[in-house]
Fold:
Amino acid sequence: MKWFNMEKGRKILTRLLLAFVLISIGFVSGRHSLKNHSLPQAESPAFGQYVTVYYMHATFRCETCNTIEKMTRELLDKAYAAELADGRIKWQEVDFQEDEPLAEKFGVVASCVVVTLVEEGKIVDFKRLDEVWTLMQKPGQFNQYISAAINLFLGRNGGKL
Structure:
């Protein structure tokens, strides 16, 4: 009789890792507001209000992390090309382990997408989109989820911009 079954061990490890990911996502989920975080002047367009879409990732990036970034960037390139071109939307990839102050301000401890509203060079509101992990296998819902946050800050559907 074996004292350790490899198949059982793999199943247990898989479940533990899944539980860790789900707990981590639950821990970091939510929407936060942020006031008066200044951005470098070089990032500010000529007009005073715009949206920045951040892809916040760890230094080590898995296939899933790379897929989330790719899907987000493809959505921006297809659905928001005009806004990217005229500066109403900016894209920024950030290693949250290197930019700890920004990660703290957004409450980021795992890879995610963060959509911010910037007025006069300061982040006045943001939405952290942690559900990208659970929606990446459903591209339509993934795109709707990110688009809803972007559209809110662009002033579509009753917003400001």
Summary: The CA atoms of residues 10 and 84 lie 45 Å apart. Residues 31-154 form a domain with the Glutaredoxin fold (CATH 3.40.30.10). The chain has one domain: 31-154. The mean pLDDT is 79.
